[in-house]
Every structure is written in structure tokens, then in C-alpha cells.
Amino acid sequence: MIKKASEINETTPWQEMTVGGEIYEGGTAALVNTGDWRTYTPGFLAEKCTHCMLCIPYCPDSSIPVKDGKRQNFDLMHCKGCGICYKVCPMKAITFDKEGA
Fold first, then answer.
1. Where in the chain are the domains?
2. What is the DSSP string of the chain?
3. CA torsion sign, 87 to 68 to 60 to 5?
4. pLDDT in tens, 8-50
5. Which of 9, 40, 87, 97 is surrounded by the most beta carbons within 10 Å?
6. How many other C-beta atoms can be found within 10 angstroms of the C-beta atom of residue 30?
7. Domain 33-98 carries which CATH code?
8. Confidence tier at 55 by pLDDT (50, 70, 90)
9. Burial of 64 (0-12, 13-18, 19+ CB in 10 A)
10. Taking a C-beta distance cutoff of 8 angstroms, is the pair 86, 43 a contact?
């Protein structure tokens, strides 16, 4: 029986893995903590934000949640720190600093 990618780990026999290059489920980072790849971290300055939502469609990782028509703080578990949101924010409501600084 072929296992889903989320079920595979270092002890899975090769017979239970998919053939290399073949994908059997949708590509998503929902199950993977991609935030560990980040070297720069965005910050959200709520007092400057007008909720224009320009940053939302530009985020390639869908790391900016929206609730009740207002953007929320970043989902840092999935943000890779590309800085696109920082560049497109007209209100300068997003900071972008070196990780751990």
C-alpha cells in the first residue's frame, strides 16, 4: 500500500513510497513548517494598517490570515521571509528585519 507524503518518515520501507517524481496529492505547505527557512522576519504594525489587503494576494505562502475583513498578524509557521509584503505595503505597516535581531 502506497502511503501519503504526510505518513512517510525515515523508517518507511521503499516499497511503500511513491515512485520518484510522481505526486499523488496536492502540493501544499500546510503540513510542513516552512517558517524555519526564513532569515528575515516580517512584523505587523497594526496601528499603521488600513486593511487595504494589498499584501494578501502578493504573499506566495498565504501567510497573512484575514478575519472579519481585517488582516491579522503573520502566520510565521509558514512565512518564508521573502519580503514581498513589505515591499507592496503602501502604509509601511510591515517591518522586515533579520531573524532574531
1. 1-28, 33-98
2. -PPPGGG--TT--GGGSPPTT---S---STTS-GGGG-SEEEEE-TTT------HHHH-TT--S-EETTEE-S--TTT-----HHHHH-TT--EEEEETT-
3. positive
4. 788 888 787 777 756 666 666 667 788 888 899 999 999 999 9
5. 40
6. 10
7. 3.30.70.20
8. very high
9. buried
10. no
For residue 49, give the C-alpha cell: 494598517
Query: What was the pLDDT predicted at 77?
Result: 92
* 94-98 and 40-44 beta bridge pairing: antiparallel
Place of cell 502578493: 58
* Burial environment of residue 69 by CB neighbours within 10 A (0 to 12, 13 to 18, 19 or more): exposed
Grid coordinates in use for 10? Answer: 525515515
**In the block, which residue shows the cell 506566495?**
60
